[in-house]
Amino acid sequence: MSRPKLKSDNDFFTKVYEVTKCVPYGRITSYGAIARYLGSGRSARMVGWALNVSHNNMEFIPAHRVVNRNGLLTGKYHFGNSTTMEQLLQNEGIIIENDRIMNFEEKFWDPAIEL
DNA sequence: ATTCTGACAGCAA
DNA sequence: TTTGCTGCCAGAA
After folding, report:
1. Residue A107 buriedness (CB in 10 A; 0-12 / 13-18 / 19+)
2. CA of A70 to C1' of C2 (A)
3. The model's pTM
4. What is the C-alpha radius of gyration for chain A, rounded to an integer number of angstroms?
5. Which domains, from first to last, does chain A contain?
């Protein structure tokens, strides 16, 4: 029958959610890595946008494990309190200093490689 | 329909 | 090195 024309579901957004949920505990990834894995390369902004509306998704999205390519917690202000994201990451064993992840490459989880 | 913005990334000056 | 612009795609006003 007619295709289920769902507004924003089962496309870029859902993929981002799936990948993000696949990020292991204590690991992190970057917007660009996810975007590249999805095949859009430079559409990293969409990844951030997807996570922004991740609240639409009923499941918990470990968006705190997604940071920019510098390992900087750019979206920490979207977690309610500026320290929430940082706290969550440190809770998982991630060391954060000055809003930046230490041992970023060490904790980095690339979907293009791991998946 | 047009315009602006957005949790980024890359490159130029 | 830092700062700023551009490109990417989608959604909101």
Report:
1. buried
2. 15
3. 0.88
4. 14
5. 12-114 (1.10.10.10)
- Give the residue nearest to nucleotide C11 (CA to C1'): A49
The pLDDT-based confidence of A40 (bands split at 50, 70, 90) is: confident
CB atoms within 10 A of CB A106: 11
Q: pLDDT (tens digit, 9 = 90+) per residue, A49-103?
A: 999 989 888 899 999 999 999 999 999 989 988 899 999 999 999 999 999 999 9
Burial class (CB in 10 A: 0-12, 13-18, 19+), A42: exposed
Residues lying close to strand B (Cβ under 7 A), chosen from 86-115 of chain A, are none
Q: How far apart are CA A96 and CA A112, in angstroms?
A: 25
Tokens matching residue A26: 């204590």
